[in-house]
Amino acid sequence: MWLKPEEVLLKNALKLWMMERSNDYFVLQRRRGYGEEGGGGLTGLLVGTLDSVLDSTAKVAPFRILHQTPDSQVYLSIACGANREEITKHWEWLEENIMKTLSVFDSNEDITNFVQGKIRGLIAEEGKHSFAKEDDPEKFREALLKFEKCFGLPEQEKLVTYYSCSYWKGRVPCQGWLYLSTNFLSFYSFLLGSEIKLIISWDAISKLEKTSNVILTESIHVCSQGENHYFSMFLHINQTYLLMEQLASYAIKRIFDKETFDNDPVLDDPLQITKRGLENRAHSEQFNAFFRLPKEETLKEVHECFLWVPFSHFNTHGKMCISENYICFASRDGNLCSVIIPLREVLAIDETNDSSKSVIISVKGKTAFRFSEVKEFEQLVAKLRLKCGATSTQYHDISTEVPVSSDSVDPSDDTEVQSLTCQRECSKTVNTEALMTVFHPQNLETLDSKMLKEKMKEQSWNILFSECGRGVSMFRTKKTRDLVVRGIPETLRGELWMLFSGAVNDMAANPGYYAEVVEQSLGTCNLATEEIERDLRRSLPEHPAFQSDTGISALRRVLTAYAFRNPKIGYCQAMNILTSVLLLYAKEEEAFWLLVAVCERMLPDYFNRRIIGALVDQAVFEELIRDHLPQLTEHMTDMTFFSSVSLSWFLTLFISVLPIESAVNVVDCFFYDGIKAILQLGLAILDYNLDKLLACKDDAEAVTALNRFFNNVTNKDSPLPSSVQQGSNVSDEKSSHIRVDITDLIRESNEKYGNILYEDIHSMRCRNRLYVIQTLEETTKQNVLRVVSQDVKLSLHELDELYVIFKKELFFSYYWCLSSPVLKHHDPSLPYLEQYQIDCQQFRVLYHLLSPWAYSANRDSLALWTFRLLDENSDCLINFKEFSSAIAYTEVQYKDPSKGDELSKEELLYLSQLHVSKPAKEKEANSAKNSPEKEKEKVNIQAYLSQWQDELLKQEENIKDLPRMNQSQFIQFSKTLYNLFHGDPEEESLYQAIAVVTNLLLRMEEVGRKLHSPTSAMKGLSGAVCVSGVPSEGQAEKPLEKEPTSPREEPQWSFAFEQILASLLNEPALVKFFEKSIDLKAKLENAKTSQLSSRTKK
């Protein structure tokens, strides 16, 4: 590899390097200790350790070439090589292309400049085809060289970044280098002759977390397949952990969520994955989640600044975050103040002329935001003005006016006109009012105490609106949170849910979308619509709104429209309960966009077949219980109790367990704080019932205690009629159970657990997602093994090992063959056996690793025939059961001698069944080839054949007679056997046995044909048959090739399966060869170790 010319002091270098070649201008050196017998002794050992610890290029490049300047101690390193062949190639190139030219220069300085320019030109030419696009490409090229040399992974495996760290082997830290690539976490260390090489695939990691203890102040813990690995001594551990988290998430999405992966142009091409790109992606995800923005938004810029808060009269310090369509601000204390400004709302952007470096953004509603102490504020203003101009034209399809002041036309007027037009067109089918407004209108004339409190709440919010603004650009402060905790007024609930969830932005960006989807989805009939119809009457059945066709029809439209929009989710139980509550307080279109916000952003992966998102948040909940309620953790022997109890809490946001008048207050907090509100409330509920739970003797008693508690949760300020309130139906008689007000419970949850940061929840979600998915995969594996073990004669341990190899081969194809048209990626909706399937190429690789005949010349043909045999539905894919049956019936394993006879016949019957539906070309060859391999200890051939025939007759309905083997198939069969025996110690005796079998079969056929047609002109053919009986496959082939020239009335000779089997069993050498026991355990271990190396660069 050519290197960027750097100065080397040869005086010190001679202690570590030995000269191999030299001339007037160049020196070729070898690292001391490399290539010497015994490793160069103690000196070589110390040099090797020094190279590994100090990240020396010499560790993987023990040869180098220096350019020497005459009469100087300073040399320039210009090339390095991993082996003698590589460095010799560079040396010869220099002699042929550079040496002749150097003689024409007059000065040493000109010579040096020429050499440097030439080498830099070579590096630039190589860089055109290189993946090294980092900040320091030269350093990255060296790291890439080491990565390729140490691990030998395929060249498609892209190195993302690398770090110096220590790997803890027991209690001993080993200093080395951690390499993060698109599919693997790799570590290499060399200390005092001890080499450590570690390769872990990202998809195999079940736990990834930052830990600390007495010995390790801060380390990264990686758990893969039950093995724990600890890495520490990072210079920037947070940055390293973030990248590892992103790469693990990338692998999980690519393998287990193919649809999302394919829709992401960045993830779809592994070569586009970079360190900077992954970091930006992680920051964008956190940015979108915190501010509830659409997933498509990408964080572009972040500026430290101050925001003037007019109603509090102070500047709050924080960060201004800018994406394609939004300007957002969050104070350092996220609860103190935050603002979201859609660029569609911006009217003007100005800068101040004073020294405050301020940017003033004016929005609709006569509101202005002042950001001060902004670095490079002039360039920022220019960029924002350009963005707002582009955004304004986007939202002005009809008018060409671009608003520049508060007197300009409202930029959302056209959007509202389009939306209203679509609503009028569909007014007959889409409700334009919330169901609560229709079924429970407020009567201002009869105000009771509850209605008065409700009006006081409304007044409090109106005061807040006057101070902080109203709408999407309002200030969100601690006061806002306090009002949400008290409960949002009924009349404002729909508006504020839309605002806090971010659904208002989705609806504004997609005017008329809902009406179109409703029209397209009406009348559709599929599994989702059938499930929706079944659950419509189960959604808040006690509420009058859903006892009428108005509410039921609205619920049907919203659920059907969402199933049409997102067929990946379609419909999941619990969506009906959530949507019915949304429809009570929001207009129908608003309820649809609220459902979109919940399912696709706020509760990702909750509403699918495996409810992975809910399981992840339950794992987060268990982690929080261990941290905040340790006494409860010590009392409960099994933490899965909390998962089983809390599943409905998360799926329905407590709507299914709390009375409706109390549950809506929980939904208020959820839309403001996200999943954090649900986790906090769950902790508060367990804390409130802590003494009762500690007194419970079993899970059933604990569940009863929690249900009794939920029945006694009330909302004393709810203005809903008593006929609707569920809590009012509970008897008010004297009871030992104390009533709990939901407002007090929510306030307590905020006071006790409000210090839980969203960043921590995000990190716990990422960490537990790996664990949940690996747990689900383990469940899938156990179910597959349980089914397969009933039909395949392998032990559970052997099947387990085989499944790991099978699945890993499939994943390797996902790593480096993303565009394969045949491969079917993981689909959890399929039966367990069909979730993972391999194609012919993958089967060929596994066949070569596991087959006892992998050394034969025609191993590819054997693999192809076997695959066709297994692929009964001809879809070019086989599942694990089919694959394991092939291994079980082609591997000769050790079996109990007392069961040898019976087992062999079962295997032969199995093979005969497989051959029935296969093309004739492979049928007979495979039948005859495989069947005798299983025969054991046969003494009486006639008795065995008679028993075989009886068993075939008994299963006449399922097993058809195997067709006879014709000439060309018999020739191919003979060739196959010859190739199988090649290289065997008993090769000569096996060849003789095959010659005898071939001769016997041909003579039997000749006699049979003479008996059936004695007058036929068979003399020529008989002679040919007699000649072909010698043990030469070429001689057997020649007369057979003349057969097509014989008269048409002469039928071609052929053999029955029984004839071939009987002839083969008559030869002890053949029986012994196919009965030879194979150590399957060793075969599997060897396959696991060589599975990856078989793909490495040669």
TrEMBL record:
Keywords: Cytoplasm, GTPase activation, Repeat. CDD domains: PH-GRAM1_TBC1D8B (cd13350), PH-GRAM2_TBC1D8B (cd13352). It holds the Pfam family GRAM. Residues 858-893 form the EF-hand domain. Residues 487-674 form the Rab-GAP TBC domain. One of its GO terms (molecular function) is GTPase activator activity. InterPro entries: EF-hand-dom_pair, EF_hand_dom, GRAM, PH-like_dom_sf, Rab-GAP-TBC_dom, Rab-GAP_TBC_sf, TBC1D8B_PH-GRAM1, TBC1D8B_PH-GRAM2. GO terms for cellular component: cytosol. It comes from the Eukaryota. Its main location: cytoplasm. It is found in: Cytoplasm, Cytosol. GO terms for biological process: glomerular filtration. PANTHER family: PROTEIN VASCULAR ASSOCIATED DEATH 1, CHLOROPLASTIC, TBC1 DOMAIN FAMILY MEMBER 8B. Interacts (via domain Rab-GAP TBC) with RAB11B (in GTP-bound form). Involved in vesicular recycling, probably as a RAB11B GTPase-activating protein. This is TBC1 domain family member 8B. It comes from Moschus moschiferus (Siberian musk deer). The lineage of its organism: Eukaryota, Metazoa, Chordata, Craniata, Vertebrata.
